[in-house]
TrEMBL record:
It catalyses: sarcosine + O2 + H2O = formaldehyde + glycine + H2O2; L-pipecolate + O2 = L-1-piperideine-6-carboxylate + H2O2 + H(+). Belongs to the MSOX/MTOX family. Its cofactor is FAD. Pfam families: DAO (PF01266). This is Peroxisomal sarcosine oxidase. The keyword Amino-acid biosynthesis does not apply. SUPFAM superfamilies: FAD-linked reductases, C-terminal domain (SSF54373), FAD/NAD(P)-binding domain (SSF51905). Signal peptide: none annotated. The keyword Oxidoreductase applies. InterPro entries: FAD-dep_OxRdtase, FAD/NAD-bd_sf, MTOX.
């Protein structure tokens, strides 16, 4: 039992956001402790799995603006750790040509001069074989988008944090937080005192925030991560330059369907639905709803004729959704030395290095490098309840 050890900062939760925050704090010479409830690495939160998409294809400029630096910081971590974390594949965005969202994404890419190629129904299959472009859909390829190697990235950033003198204690669940000028954090194995705390607890955020009298409007959903088998091995392979893709909406669904080329499991393509059914993070396996899989099956039949329309592997992962799907990056409304990074809404991985930088800046009381107004807690004011 460790008692009353003192730190400049304690970061709670060693997913992608907490790990990058701890690393940034250590770079700023802060004596930092990173606490994780499970033994690392684990598969029970939101950051596990081999791959994630990295892209600038968004409908808002503020995400595109952050991505330039995010790409640079990913490359910096690759150099520091001596590992490959990013593979350029391009991102195919398909959607109803006349829909507001598809048009917005295309315009945002053009306005921000992101390298892209517009495909037509005539040349589509020359560039993208084995995919059916639905009539009325447009298609663009964002050239510099690609795949991030997620598990490898977590291992790398945690190792760099430790090299900088940071301390990781896994298998230690935070049970209580006592706010104050010095915050007391009690875990299943000890008690720590810190000048500052950062809460990056993913799907468990509200459980921890309850100790500070705050609840955010977060909804946790379980995503069935489906892998689909190629009929002809190699048809959708990363080595044949098959891109990541997003289908913004379709006759099957109004939500995005997205996928990555076959890569981590030979012959299997990852295709997921961008929402799921409500789940308790500690009881996720009890959530057995398969309606997302049914939607995906119809989409695979319709658009991916080279795949067997029955998932070969189904894994699970959690999203923590905010009502507007934008992140929460802010100081606690009552305790300025408690900083919150939450609600990454199923699209936060690519921003990990920037989220780490911003959460570190908030924690140190510095002016944030980007405008954080879309991410502030006050946007929920009418709905959030501060019991204090
Ligand atoms: C299927 C899927 C696909 C996705 N695809 C993409 C993509 O292509 N591109 C992209 O950019 N993003 C993607 N995302 C989103 C991205 O992965 C998440 O936004 C990101 O991983 C969230 O990280 P986090 O650190 O907030 O949460 P988590 O990874 O869940 O980390 C929180 C950590 O806090 C720990 N913790 C919680 N409570 C306690 C406690 N009391 N004590 C100690 N530790 C605690 C948890 O165990 C956990 O390790 C995807 C997500 C999923 C699920
Ligand atoms: O963030 C991403 O790129 C993925 C794909 C689109 C939907 C959510 N996650």
């Amino acid at each position: 039992m460790s008692t009353n050890q003192e730190f400049d900062c304690v970061v709670i939760g060693a997913g992608v956001q907490g790990s990058f925050t701890a690393y940034q704090l250590a770079k700023h010479k802060q004596k930092t402790l990173l606490l994780e409830q499970f033994i690392l690495p684990h598969t029970r939160g939101s950051s596990h799995g081999q791959t994630r998409i990295i892209r600038k294809a968004y409908d808002e400029d503020f995400y595109v603006n952050m991505m330039d630096e995010s790409y640079e910081l990913w490359a910096q971590l690759e150099r520091e750790a001596g590992v490959k974390l990013y593979r350029q594949t391009g991102l195919l965005v398909m959607g109803p040509e006349k829909s507001h969202y598809y048009e917005q994404v295309k315009n945002t890419l053009q306005r921000n001069k992101v390298p892209m190629v517009t495909l037509t129904s005539d040349n589509f299959n020359q560039h993208i074989p084995h995919v059916k472009l639905t009539e009325g859909n447009g298609a663009v390829v964002e050239v510099t988008a690609g795949v991030l190697y997620a598990d490898r990235a977590l291992k790398a950033v945690q190792a760099q944090f430790q090299k900088l003198g940071g301390v990781i204690r896994d298998n230690e669940m935070v049970m209580d937080i006592k706010p104050g000028p010095i915050v007391t954090v009690s875990t299943s194995a000890g008690v720590y005192r810190a000048k500052r705390v950062v809460i990056t607890a993913g799907p468990w955020a509200n459980r921890l925030l309850a100790h500070t009298g705050l609840q955010l409007p977060l909804e946790v959903v379980k995503i069935n991560v489906c892998y689909w088998k190629e009929k002809v091995p190699g048809s959708y392979d990363v080595r044949r330059r098959f891109p990541c893709f997003i289908l913004t909406e379709s006759q099957e669904s109004k939500e995005h369907i997205y996928g990555l080329p076959s890569n981590e499991y030979p012959g299997l393509v990852k295709i997921c639905y961008h929402t799921g059914s409500k789940a308790d993070p500690d009881q996720r396996d009890q959530q057995t709803d398969r309606s997302d899989i049914n939607i995906l099956q119809r989409c695979v039949k319709h658009c991916f004729p080279g795949l067997i329309p029955e998932p070969a592997v189904v894994e699970s992962c959690l999203y923590t959704l905010t009502p507007d799907r934008h992140f929460v990056l802010d100081c606690h409304p009552t305790y300025s030395n408690i900083v919150i990074g939450a609600g990454f809404s199923g699209h936060g991985f690519k921003f990990g290095p920037i989220m780490g930088k911003l959460l570190c800046e908030l924690s140190l009381g510095e002016v944030p490098s980007y405008d954080l107004s879309p991410f502030r807690i006050r946007r929920f004011q009418a709905k959030s309840k501060s019991a204090l």
